[in-house]
Each structure stands twice: as structure tokens, then as C-alpha cells.
Amino acid sequence: MNNLTELHESLAKVVLGNRDLVEVLTEITRIARREMPSIEAASVTLIRGEKPFTAAYEGQMALDADELQYERGYGPCMDAGRAGQVLLIDDMRSEQRWPDYAQHAAAHGVLSSLSVPLPFQGATIGALNTYAKRPRFLDDRDVELAEDIAAWIAIAIGNAEAAARTSEDLSNLRAAMMSRALIEQAKGILMERHKIKEDEAFTILTHACQRTNIELRDVAEELVRTGALPG
């Protein structure tokens, strides 16, 4: 039986209804760690408004790596959720999109990672994060598995959102979708201007965030509004 089939069987057994969301997400991250042999730890980053936090994790490495990013205000676990983009780091020691974070993550034993956005168009956005102690150890198969797990996480969050919809949720939804749209516009401007690929445009945006200590959304908004990156 292949990993994907085993994963689907495990996820199908997760009870979503009438349970605390954190409890459900913790169970799913345990499944992720068990069914993805390439990784040592997994976590779920959620972003409410502009505030990221780890809603569930399996393995201390994941929580430590997440919090390194929250301290800096940038990193793949947040940027994947905000931009709706799969972000793979093959080797933290040579990573150039988030060099400061990557250096500290490597010092904590994290040498590769994968962050997959949650495909949920709701007030809460975020990402599934997986971490490995070896470089270049995550591949297309891991991306496929992680995307399936992220879809189940999105369903769980969708159930929770539907059960507790408030005006604040709707406000957060509008803010989250506006942020993602601005980032997509900014990437498009850079791709057209410099004749580059999407990943290269995204790297330019993340570097601008780190140079100026400005959030990804605000960097994108500045580029869309003025045609120039801040700083």
C-alpha cells in the first residue's frame, strides 16, 4: 500500500464534528509526521488578521522553527499562508530568500522544510509546515502528501469557522484576501518588469521585507501603488 493511500485512510478516520479545533489539528499533524517518512516534525501555522501563531505541532523542532519566524515577522510558514504559495527549502545552509531565519533554523538542527498553504478561503489562513534534519530530503512526493493533509486541515478549519461566524471573522476574511491579491499583483509586476519566474519575483519581495522590516503585504502594496519597492 503506497503512502498516499495510507494517508487518505488515516485522514478519513479523523472525526471533525463536535470537537475542539486544536484537538483536531493536533491529530492531523501527528498523522503528517507518521505518514511522511522524510520529516521529523510538523506544525500548523494559522494567521488571524495579520497575527500568526502555531495552532498545533508534533515535534519540538517544528514549534522552535515556527517561533524563529514569528520573532522576525517573516519566513516560509507565514509567507506560504499569506501568498498562497508552496515554499520548499532544500538546504537551510544555502537558503537566500530568508537568510537570517535559515541560519538560525540550521543552528537548531533544521536543514530542510516544506510549507504548504491551506486551501481555505476563510477568515483564517495559514500553512502546514514540515521539517527535516537532512538537506535535500523533501521531494515532489512530499509536496503531494502535504497538499492532501493541508486540504483536510482546511476542511477542519472550515467547519470551525462555519460554527462560529462573526463580523470579526468577515473582516479578517476581507483583509486576508486583499493581502493575497496584493501579493499576486506585486509578483505579476516584477515578473513582467524583469522577465522572471514567479519564484524569483517572490524572492525579491521577501528580500525587500527583510531589508526594510516591513510586512510582506505592505511591501506588495507599496509596489502596486507606486511602482517601486520600499527602501
Helix content: 55-70%
- Average pLDDT rating: 88
How many separate domains make up the residues?
Answer: 2
- Tell me what portion of residues adopts beta-strand conformation: 5-15%
Key attributes of the depicted protein:
Arc Repressor Mutant, subunit A; alpha+beta; single chain; five-stranded antiparallel β-sheet; 231 residues; 5 strands; Beta-Lactamase; globular
Topology:
Elements: H1 3-12, H2 21-35, E1 41-48, E2 51-58, H3 60-72, H4 76-83, E3 87-89, H5 99-107, E4 112-117, E5 124-132, H6 140-163, H7 167-194, H8 198-212, H9 216-226
Antiparallel strand pairs: 1-2, 1-5, 3-4, 4-5
Helix pairs in contact: 1-2, 1-6, 2-6, 7-8, 7-9
Provide a descriptive summary of the structure in words.
This protein has helices spanning 3-12, 21-35, 60-72, 76-83, 99-107, 140-163, 167-194, 198-212, 216-226, and strands at residues 41-48, 51-58, 87-89, 112-117, 124-132. The protein has 231 residues and is of the alpha+beta class. The protein folds into 2 domains: 3-163, Beta-Lactamase (2-Layer Sandwich); 167-226, Arc Repressor Mutant, subunit A (Orthogonal Bundle), CATH 1.10.10.10. A 5-stranded antiparallel beta sheet has the order 2-1-5-4-3, sandwiched between helices. A hairpin with a 6-residue loop joins strand 4 and strand 5 (124-132).
